[in-house]
Amino acid sequence: MKNLIVIPQKYLFFRSEAQGILRDIFSQKRIPKIIELDFSQVKFVSRSFIDEFLNIVEEAKRRGVTVKAHNLAPIFKKLKKIVERKKSQIQKVFAEA
Amino acid sequence: MLIFIWGNDILKDVFSYRNKIKSSELGEELEKILQRIERLKFPVGFLDFILYAISEIFANIKEHSQAREILIDLLVAQKKCKINISDNGIGFRESYLKKGIYPKDDSVAIEFALSGLSTKDPKERGFGLYSIRKLVEALGGRLILETGLAKSILEGKKIGFRGITKREGVKVTFETPIKKIDFYKHIH
């Protein structure tokens, strides 16, 4: 049962790469309640990747798994905040509609 | 065919790249481009802009275009940067129609794309192109989008449309001066 996963890529561009992380988490025979993802090798991420990554964190939470991300590159941290803020604004609009 | 040209003087760095790739090679090619661009010296924020813009355009191609081939043409000269990326996919309008969004023509489809409208799914929003628009505007550059029968040219806050001979897929061109930019201020 592995609760630390090191993300080996240097660049993460596509939504499919975030979906791959979710598959890796749930392909384990016994899935821990908390998964730590180590992004120390990752130098650059696209906005699309971050958007999908936030979706998979939410999906994992729905399935009872908390995903924590560590060692984020500065661009990852800053874009993540921006995308999180935008997503919550959009979801609020949809909830009110 | 891959062409890289390097200058010796850092201030006069010239990076020129032209290639035609299959859609299956997108990720690998993007990595090669980014690795080379990262070695160039840019004013503060400009490298983030280039990496962001190119990766977002590639992500759009992968996710929406159904393209078979992509043509990439990059030029980073002493004071100016020009990037053309075009694909032979289904174009903006067809991409929206497949998601249940109905732009009445290609011009409207371009407007949708530039406004951040991606799909009806609240989990998937399209602010990549919108942010590129804002960044190019902040740099005092020009952004040109061509798809189907429409071409849009954005300079400053002005957007102009003209009709073109039908173009398959999408072509994105942006030209900007190379200068300092507060990158995160313009990302949405």
Summarize the structure.
Chain A contains three helices and five strands; from the N terminus they run E-E-H-E-E-H-E-H. By secondary structure, chain A is an alpha/beta fold. In chain A, strands 1-3-5 form a three-stranded parallel sheet, with helices on one face.
Structure description:
- The complex is a heterodimer of chains A (97) and B (188).
- The termini of chain A are far apart.
- Chain A has helices at residues 15-26, 47-62, 74-96, and strands at residues 4-6, 11-12, 34-38, 44-45, 66-70.
- Chain A contains three helices and five strands; from the N terminus they run ββαββαβα.
- Helix content of chain A is 53%, strand content 18%.
- By secondary structure, chain B is of the alpha+beta class.
- In chain B, 34% of the residues lie in helices and 32% in strands.
- In chain B, α1 runs antiparallel to α2 (46-65) and α2 (46-65) packs antiparallel against α5 (127-139).
- Chain B has helices spanning 26-37, 46-65, 91-98, 106-115, 127-139; strands at 3-5, 15-22, 69-76, 80-87, 142-155, 158-177.
- The chains are: A alpha/beta (97), B alpha+beta (188).
- At the A-B interface, α2 and α3 of A face α1, α2 and α5 of B.
Features:
heterodimer, A: 97 residues, alpha/beta, 3-stranded parallel sheet, B: 188 residues, alpha+beta, 6-stranded antiparallel sheet, 6 strands, globular
Question: Roughly how much helix do the residues of chain A carry, as a percent range?
Answer: 40-55%
Distance between the termini of chain B: 36 Å
Structural class of chain A: alpha/beta
What Rg of chain A is obtained from the alpha carbons, in whole angstroms? Answer: 14 Å
Total E-strand runs of chain B: 6
* Approximate shape of chain B: globular
Low-confidence stretches of chain B: 1-11
Report the total helices of chain B.
Answer: 5
Q: Which strand order spans the largest sheet of chain B, edge to edge or round the barrel?
A: 1-2-3-4-6-5
Q: Which class of secondary structure composition applies to the elements of chain B?
A: alpha+beta
